[in-house]
Amino acid sequence: MRTDHAFSSNPQSQPSTAPTNMTKHTITPINKNWTFKQGDKEDSKFLPVAQFPTNVHLDLIANNIIADPFIGKNENDVQWIGEVPWVYKTTFTSPSLTKEERGDIKAVLAFDGLDTYATVVLNGEEILKTESMFIPDRVDVTTHLKKEGDNELEITFESAYLKGCAIVEKYPDHHWGCWNGDTSRLAVRKAQYHWGWDWGPTLMTCGPWRPINLEIFSSRISDVYFTSDVDKSLRSAKLVAKTDVEGGASDVAFTISLDGKEVASKTVKTSNGHAEHTFEISDPALWYPVRYGEQPLYTITASLLQSGSEIDQQTKKFGLRRAKLIQRSMPEQPGTTFFFEINNIPIFCGGSDWIPADNFIPRISKEKYYDWVKLVADGNQFMIRVWGGGIFEEQAFYDACDELGILVWQDFMFGCGNYPGFPEFLALVKTEAEENVKLLRHHPSIVIWAGNNEDYQYQESEGLTYDPENKDAESWLKTNFPARYIYEKILDDICKELIPDTYYHFGSPWGGKNTTDPTVGDLHQWNVWHGSQEKYQNFDKLVGRFVSEFGMEAFPNIKTIESFLPLGKDDPDRFAQSSTVDFHNKADGHERRIALYLVENFRYAPDPLEQFIYSTQLMQAECLASAYRLWKRQWKGPGKEYCGGALVWQINDCWPVTSWAIVDYYLRPKHAYYTVKREMAPISLGVTRKEHMIPKDKHTRAYIEKKTKIEIWGSNLTLKDITADVVVKAFDVISGKETYSKTVKSDFLLPENRSTEIIDFDVPVQHVNSGEETRIVVAAYLYEEGVQIARYINWPEPLKYVHLQKPKHLTAELSKDGKMVELSAEVPIKGVAVECEDEDVSFGDNLVDVVPGEVVSIAVKGANKGTKITTRYLGMV
Ligand code: BMA
User: Fold this and answer.
1) Statement to judge: residues 254 and 131 lie in one domain
2) Which of 12, 364, 488, 617 is deepest in the core (most CB within 10 A)?
């Protein structure tokens, strides 16, 4: 008889269907006294963990056993960690309960996330084995807990890498293959970027990465959820509130409240472990994306009642909004639209792709998540795509998106490869998808789920079998692309059942003839940087209905580089081409590609490092802004939504690195963050130059008139029509002289929520065919009732041909109140960056072009009288 383990004194005494005594549901975090050690070494001692939840790298760093893998090339020295087992151990006491309470209670250990192959032993008995870091597990430990004294909980994590290798070998018939990492990742349900990616180190960590709790209850609410339907009129909403109940409690009281005030409530009987009630909410407070309205969040509370007393309660915040993905044909262009409409408002979805914000997730604080999302919102962006090679993010991330009005595109966790389809794998995938959809479905910010990242692109590139006509799902499993069954059957069924109101997309990209079809679905546009390495000036030709990825690399802030150099500022490798700096760039061919785009566009040099960093950031900023500008131009209003959004690859980094990120690991924006922000301003102007050759006759090669036309358009992303004057000026780049100034349109109408072509005309020159255009800078301004509401400066390109002058009088003055930096100069200057040593000083804008006769103001925070602000610009060095 196991007297020492019999926590429930009389488990059979109370039939669970008609309990009389009920205990309140209590949740006790098991987060104390944890120690860890290497599992395959006899002599290794248990050491204290760094924090809880945690992972093995954080604990080894905290115990000074390994050096920080983010510094120098330490990553290389810590690879052994991923190939050995690790053991975590703690003790905890059993809750003391009265005799009556013991009768019908259950004790459950809830593991929110164990990364990945864990064997859990409680008081010497194995209670759980896991195979996915994404699946939360609950284990009934009622009969395992000790009545008195400490319980011992021990978790052993095996090497996920070696397990993956073994699975790959076990299924030799599967066509294993992937981009990034190695194929063992495809077999393992663990964050795929842990295997290394083209922006991240290989750090195969493990551990209890999410909380572990001990729950005591007789009956409990296992989930609170709902479906919602906001009427097209936006005047009413139907909310079907639901709970699932474990145990025999009989009633659930639902309360809906807003700003602390009750809006509706209802108590209902549970039946077969379920209770639901339909609420009609009239004049609902609607949740909007940032800039388009407020983000009111309702609270739904479900209280579990037994004999009138509350024994459990769960609350969730939610928002009511009507979210649709509009895919319809257009009269003048092929294919279909792909844009989001929230509360009947079509949104041009400028935004970013998101990767995990650290290699070691447990150390990302709630505040850091909030700061990241705030940066996105402050950058005039509306959407974040949670990319499939990372994790289903922490609640804090989505909470911040809900609060700040950022739409979320959520991928399922598959990326860049050919995933297997053997039964155990499919079963894991199914549970993982169900559990994570349930965890996230209340967030109003999530407006789309997608099956994977680029797995269809991988299928196309490898020529794996895919017959769109074949609708027999079971047969897909027999092909060399079995994962089609995951994306088009398993995930599709789950989404239909669990989130019928949210659009599910088979993959990103997906739609049309294939993944590169620019007329249907979304597109990853990598022909700038990867692929055919197009010039970024040609982004207009590379448009798609919704570009969910495109990008360009740039070096991070100098302080970020110094942070990873072992000797910081004094490190002998503190130069652009050094081996340590190269090591902190994981992209294939990065040296060549950065150099290619630099050399095509700018006069630049690798030294000094600060100016080189500036050059790469200028290049990235010009590149990304040009994509935004040219694609947003294709947002032309009802029936002409030729492009419905652009998401930059990528907003963030998981360590200090040179990558496509527009903000680095330490949340230091690169200059592209600001140029993208300007493009997504409520009102903006776009200008482009096009060369036209007009031969005098059919055969001549000598008598050709060359004209350079500028095209000007305005983008009004507000929901109000605007009437404005359009002023165009021209300047000689060498003398600084204004050579042209004219109001080219008066009272010009820019209708709401679209881009409108304004005018095109020849670059104003004194002498036709003299090549003068190449020294003329064109400045366009929009004035509404005399107030400047937008400006854009257009330069001859490539900029490397332009004889840029060093200004004699570039002033960057702090305004008297310290809230503005005012820039002015006597010659046109490209890309003036303001910089400040003091990290508490931040700027609202950066990298601006300046032409003579104007003062460009940049908002500044945290500055005072003594603050020293310096400038940098193209051609300075
Ligand atoms: C995209 C992404 C990532 C990758 C990026 C840059 O396609 O989906 O897999 O990091 O390209 O190469």
Assistant:
1) no
2) 617
CB atoms closer than 10 angstroms to residue 298:
24
Element (H, E) at 38: strand 35-38
Q: What is the mean pLDDT of residues 779-802?
A: 97
Same domain, 224 and 168: no
pLDDT over threshold 50, residue 9: no
Name the residue at shortest CA distance from atom 1 of ligand 1: 549
Are residues 134 and 146 part of one domain? yes
Nearest CA to ligand 1 atom 12: 198
Q: Tokens for 91?
A: 């003790």
Whether 771 has a pLDDT exceeding 90, the answer reads no
For residue 646, give the nearest of 492, 525, 773, 496 by alpha carbon: 525
Is residue 340 a part of any domain in this protein?
no
**Which residue did the predictor score with more confidence, 8 or 296?**
296
Domain membership flag for residue 430: yes
pLDDT tier at 19, thresholds 50, 70, 90: very low
* Mean pLDDT value across residues 655-677: 98
For residues 869-874, average pLDDT: 96
**613 falls within a domain:** no
**CA distances for 849 relative to 51, 779, 854, 872, angstroms:** 47, 10, 11, 11
Contact 416 CB / ligand 1 (< 6 Å): yes
Domain boundary, last residue among 215, 248, 267: 215
Residue 742 has pLDDT above 60, yes or no: yes
Indicate if ligand 1 lies below 6 Å from the C-beta of 547.
no
Q: What is the pLDDT of residues 460-472, one digit of tens each?
A: 999 999 999 999 9
Task: Give the nearest ligand 1 atom to 389 CA.
Answer: 9
- Is the CB of 198 within 6 Å of ligand 1? yes
pLDDT bin (cut points 50, 70, 90) of residue 756 is very high
Maximum Cα–Cα distance across the chain: 105
- State the total domains in the chain: 5
169 and 200 both lie in a single domain: yes
Residues 12 and 127 in one domain: yes
**Residue 454 Cβ contacting ligand 1 at under 6 Å:** yes
Which domain range does residue 182 map to? 2-215
Q: Is residue 175 part of a domain?
A: yes
Q: Hey, which of 386, 549, 658, 662 would you mutate to test ligand 1's pocket, going by the most ligand atoms within 8 Å of its Cβ?
A: 549
Q: Are residues 731 and 671 both part of a single domain?
A: no
Catalytic residues: 454
Please tell me the residue having the least CA distance from ligand 1 atom 6.
198
